[in-house]
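Please decode residue identities from the backbone states below.
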């Protein structure tokens, strides 16, 4: 997409200083700006680059005062950082402004959907599916039977939504995510062979949830696996059967949560955290990256380590961990000295 300085100033309610007709078609950091790119200056540490950047347009604060010649066209606004963020939102809105049903695609006769819908090519919409208004289903998405998806939802290319799943309003499911696959349920017999336990539950994702690329959320054995309102899931996370994640909890990439664990509200969980099954994690808990959780966690705890310790206890212990070779050497010398005195 191509925008002129006049169009951008109109969107941002900004003032142009320079060529009003100059065009941009891409975004860039100010130090890496090239012809045809748009950038911004908000951090004073980067002021030096505004005099050398080749970006065609730069968004700056209204109180910015140039100390030497500038090649780039300026758009002056009240807050350059907020204005640039606003422009990104506008850009995404325009980019995502797709509507209609592309072919080939399959839509069951029993499926229903609201106005301003978008179904990308090769999408599959199963029996009794219900999809709300302004939803966008990108190419190669599979949506199984009896799925419900709310208004303004976005399901990106290649995602798979298994049967009976319920997804709320304003949710985003990124490419490669799999929602509603069977939980990991098997029972061994006397020969050590495994028989599958039928997974008859579903997944419920409430409103305003983001599910990252490659993340998997398993259906419940009985009942529901539940992702509450406002949860943010990074890429490549594994959420097992019957897990419940509380409102506005954020979880970073490659975390694994075993079956039937309950996680509270407003938790922050770092990358590569492993959480055992049937645990209760309280509200406002902070878990540092690569921690291993094998016990219940109380509200407000900050923990780290594997197995996880209290965050402050871990930091104190780490001082000794890194000095352990020196400490061992001192112990050996003391033992030798004691033995020689005997």
């Amino acid at each position: 997409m191509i925008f002129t300085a006049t169009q951008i100033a109109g969107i941002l309610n900004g003032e142009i200083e320079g060529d009003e007709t100059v065009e941009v078609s891409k975004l860039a950091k100010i130090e890496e700006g090239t012809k045809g790119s748009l950038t911004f200056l908000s951090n004073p540490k980067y002021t030096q680059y505004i005099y050398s950047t080749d970006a065609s347009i730069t968004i700056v604060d209204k109180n910015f005062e140039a100390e030497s010649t500038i090649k780039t066209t300026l758009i002056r606004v009240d807050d350059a950082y907020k204005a640039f963020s606003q422009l990104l939102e506008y850009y995404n809105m325009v980019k995502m402004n797709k509507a209609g049903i592309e072919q080939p695609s399959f839509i069951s006769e029993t499926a229903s959907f609201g106005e301003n819908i978008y179904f990308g090519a090769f999408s599959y919409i199963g029996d009794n599916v219900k999809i709300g208004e302004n939803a966008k289903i990108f190419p190669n998405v599979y949506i199984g039977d009896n799925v419900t998806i709310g208004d303004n939802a976005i399901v990106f290319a290649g995602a798979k939504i298994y049967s009976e799943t319920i997804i709320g309003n304003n949710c985003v499911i990124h490419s490669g995510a799999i929602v509603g696959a069977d939980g990991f349920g098997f029972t061994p017999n006397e020969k050590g062979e495994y028989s599958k336990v039928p997974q008859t539950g579903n997944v419920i994702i409430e409103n305003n949830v983001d599910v990252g690329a490659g993340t998997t959320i398993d259906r419940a054995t009985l009942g529901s696996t539940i992702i509450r309102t406002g949860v943010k899931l990074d890429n490549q996370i594994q959420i097992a059967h019957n897990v419940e994640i509380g409102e506005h909890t954020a979880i970073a990439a490659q975390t694994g949560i075993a079956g039937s664990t309950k996680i509270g509200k407003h938790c922050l969980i770092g990358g590569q955290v492993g959480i055992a099954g049937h645990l209760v994690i309280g509200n406002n808990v902070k878990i540092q990256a690569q921690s291993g959780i094998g016990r219940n966690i109380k509200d407000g705890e900050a923990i780290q380590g594997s197995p996880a310790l209290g965050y402050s206890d871990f930091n104190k212990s780490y001082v000794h961990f890194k000095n352990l070779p020196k400490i061992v050497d001192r112990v050996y010398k003391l033992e030798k000295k004691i033995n020689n005195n005997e």
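Observation: The helical segments are 5-12, 80-95, 311-322, 324-341.
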